[in-house]
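Hi W.,

Here's what went into the run:
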Amino acid sequence: MKKILICLFALLIAVPAYAIDGTQLLKQIDRNLNPESYELYRKLINIEPDGRKKEYVLFTVKKGRDKVAALFLSPASEKGRSTLRLGDNMWLYIPNVGKPVRITNLQSVVGGIFNNSDIMQLDYADEYNVEKIEEQGGEYLLHLKAKTKTVAYDRLKLWADKNKKLPTKIECLTEASMLIKTLYFKEVKDFGGGTVRPSVIETDSPLYKGYKSVIIVANIKKKEFKDEVFTLTFMSNIESLRK
Amino acid sequence: MIKRYFLFSALLVVLFSPFCLVAEEYKFDLSEIEKKPYHIGGYLEFRPVLFGLDRDASLYKLKFFKRDEGKTIEEYNGKLQIEGSYEKGIARLFVRTNFDLTYSYLGWEHNEPQRMIYEGYLSLKPTPSLSFKFGKQILLWGKGYAFNPVAFVSRGKDPDDPELALEGFIAASADYIKSFNGPLKTLSITPVILPVYEHINDDFGKVNKLNFAGKLYLLLYDTDIDLIAMTAGSRTSRVGMDFSKNITTNLEIHGEFAFINNQRKKVIDSLGKISESKFDAKNYLLGIRYLTASDTTFIFEYYRNGTGFSHLEMKDYFTFIDKGYDLFLSKRNESLLKKAASVTQGNYGRPNPMKDYLYLRVTQKEPFNILYFTPAITTIMNLNDKTLSLSPELLYTGFTNWEFRLKGTALVGQRETEFGEKQNDYRLELRVRFYF
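Here's what came out:
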């Protein structure tokens, strides 16, 4: 009888954890961060140990699960440069060169701590499987594993606020669980249209000691685009989507 | 004393507090993303170059036979590239100008005024699927990094600096794009009309001709494929295709193939007899782009230039220059050197005039975690005469809108070879750019 009671008690406390559908939770986090199709503006700031900063402003459009395009608006040295991701295909367009060039998925298009996954990010649920969920006080800890080798970070540890279902911290890890960088999500803001999400993401990396990078998000708008916008031929015209 | 200390402290607070505030705040003003109907930008460049001359080389003799400039010459280059655009509704007007100013042993020089407009066109975009462009424009086709055998309607790029902006041609073009679900994801068609008349694209080929070209682009099974053609007119008719595909996450392969009908080649023998042959030429390229885990990028290309000269033809050309130089030294007679010069421009003197080349460029992103620092080394190897150019470079872009590049080039080759007979043994240049 005592054993049965212990088993029942163990089941009772175990049920809440197993009741969470990791994939559904991750999809919910994705939708809370952005609509599935949208346009948004971001400022990327690299801060060096001596306080020197380098800033980039990007205009990004996304459609569905796997179509993303981004255009650099500043600084002047990068203005007009655009990147396109269509599934696992990725291209870079440099105005001076005059034609898009196919790039390998892992190639970085800006210097510093940022890489393509920061600029051409898809939904987490599209790139990662949830391996395990833990509950830590007011937060969930999701252990994510990349679905394919094309993803920049093989593993993620994502901490999310239980109530808001928004990330608070993400650790990006290699296959061997070596920490590459940590993202801290801050300053939750109402962007309108039902999007309430962190507006500032700070990043640090043990690989770049003393360096910090910040992403500030602005003007997220749910928007539909024609498929033709996400084509190599359209890359030099992304500016025309800005109103 | 206390008063002085207080004043000093106050001064420190006043001086440094704004910087502290700025360092802690992350500002993103909406004015930074506000779209204006017009845009003006560009860059200013200063590029001093030191050339180490090879005084025994044939091309040195051809150029310097009447003057002695010593073992080295200096050149100071300035460049101002300005671009501007104005957008209203579906229309956009775009202009890119390029002004080059050089000070060398020849004194001050600048590029010709008619060559200062690199691009100047009106584009109309009624829908994202359809657009038109009228005016001077760059239509750079092909997937190669250093060479583009299928770039039928653009000027040849310099393999030594393939990312430099090129001057366009006056043309009318359109783009029609269609996306699909399934193995064929994208299809786009680009028809081009390129007129060649006196004062309009007259350096493209035969004048008083209207040239038609076109490109069909497909994204099929995650592979970029272009089918390209140009009808006979100012140049002979030609067809081509190119492709590009990511094989793995860090390996991309690309290739180009061009078939040129009735290509003409002007050859000079060692006695100075000029003959012209006509043949169908095949030009092609195969290349890869490979990224290692440590952020080293390799770009490797093999280029077959079917219109190029054989090693023997180049040897004859160099031998004839040497004969002309000997004649000039003995009798002050320039006639043979003038004849050699007449077959140099756009022929023997074009970049990579021979048949088989290997190109390798290795870049290392931010070694030793030095942000914005990219060292690279590039080599172009002539497989026909076993000569090469080797160019190490250091690039730093750490200051916003500034770019610093230090580049050296050494030319390695025996006598009567392409790189061995160039006028320089080496070149050292600094390039400083400020973008605005």
